[in-house]
Structures are given as structure tokens and as C-alpha cells.
Amino acid sequence: MNVLLWLCYKGTRYAGFQVQPNGRTVCAVFQDALEAVLGARPDVKGCSRTDAGVHARRFALNFRYAGTPPPEKLVPALNAHLPPDVRVLEGRRVPDGFHARYAAHAKTYAYYLLNSRIEDPFTADVAYRIAAPLDVPAMQAAAQQMVGTHDFAALCAAGSSAAAHGDTVRTVTACTVQRGARDARYIVIRVTADGYLYNMVRILAGTLVEAGRGKLAAGDIPAILQSRDRHRAGPTLPAKGLFLEQVTYAPEDLCL
Question: How far is the C-alpha of 206 from the C-alpha of 236, rounded, in Å?
């Protein structure tokens, strides 16, 4: 059967999700757990590669196996063999043709900023600190300029295969900037899109930070996007503040 599992993980100690020859990855430790539970190491299809140091609150993956133990019993069985910074949240059987990456209609990422002169030791590896005061309304105004179908080449890191092929148009359906309700020192940039370019969210976040520091205005964003020039956008913020928060699938793609 084909099974969809939802994972959460803290990516600090990992070289991303995808298996790599030189580095510990989330997929590798997950397959180690699969082998311990199933006695086999099935091929795993992840919804995203996620870079080194990036975290996930709800990461989707699928794989095929014989069906023993049943999907509902896989969750506790796998968690018993996973390190504490990786956890399976839930699982279900899905149609044979389901693929966690290609069936995704949208993904939501969040970037966490700590706007403070002093580092918080409890969040130092999951939020990027900026000491200079940030104007959140200005950031939100700039964020709204990102919404829509645009060529996002200016927000794409050099060396991207998509950029090399000219495939840089994406549709952003939501982009928001908010201060934390419980702790106003934290600022969350959240974006939902049908797809992303290499480092797109980290560059988008860096561009919005420039707006928050008064170095860019909301009205500058359309020209930056139209230029397709990476140098006109903001810096690429560190991976540690980035979380994959949600992957959206059509209900009919999940129903047997």
C-alpha cells in the first residue's frame, strides 16, 4: 500500500531532508527507523528537499510497503526508533498514484525573527535575531506586493536549475508579517505559494527586513521583481529561522 505520513522535525543537526552522501539527513534517520520497524528500507518521496538547518512543523512524505503493521500503528512504532528531534505526527493510506511532492497544491513557509538587542538562548537555533528596530507595518505593506503571479527570479539564489531554464514564475496566494501575540519581540513572516525557487523564502524575508529597516519601500517591490535582478533584492537570511509549516493537498487526491 501507499502511505502518507506527516513529520515534524528540528533541522538544526541535519543537512536537510534529502539523503546526501556526506551529511546526516532527516530522510536517512527516517529510513533507519523504517528499516527497524519493517525490516526493509523503502524509497521515500518527500514533499520538499528543505536545506540544511531548515525546520518543519508538518512535512509530508509517502512510501509503499506491504501493510504490516497497519498505518495507524506505524506512528508509535517509528517514533520509538527516531531521534527526539524528528517525530511522526500521523499517517494514512492514500491512492497508489499519490506522490507527496507532485500532488501538493500549495506550501506554507514561515520565517521567524527575533527583533531584540539580546539573543534568546531558548530560540537561538530557530529564529534569526535582528537588533535594529523593525517597522512591521512597512514590512506588511511590502509583503502585499509579493502576492500574485510574478516572475520571482530576483528572489532566487544563483545556481538554481529552475532559473537556468527560465522557470521562475510562481503564484503567491498569501504573504503576511505579524508580531507574536505572546511575545512582541518575535516577528513571523508567513508565505503561501504554489511553488518556490531556491532560497526564495529566505530572500523574500531578507527583502522584507530591508523594508522594515527603511531601506526599501513597498513601492519598490514591483520594480525589483520586474528587474529579475538578484542584486536588487534583500539578503538571504540564515536557514535557522525557516519552517515548512503546511502542505496542502486536494481532498480527492487523498481519498481511496
Answer: 6
Please indicate, yes or no, whether residues 123 and 59 belong to a single structural domain of this protein: no
Segments in the chain forming alpha helices (H): 26-38, 71-79, 136-144, 161-164, 200-212, 221-227, 251-254
Do 106 and 193 form a contact (C-beta atoms < 8 A)?
yes
| Active site residue ranges | 51
Strand 169-179 relative to strand 148-151, pairing: antiparallel
Domain of residue 47, residue span: 2-103
> In terms of pTM, does the model score above 0.90?
yes
Point out the domain boundary residue: 82, 103, 124: 103
Bridge partners of 148? 172
Whether the CA torsion 191, 196, 202, 205 is positive or negative: it is negative
pLDDT tens column, 6-39: 999 999 999 999 988 889 999 999 999 999 999 9
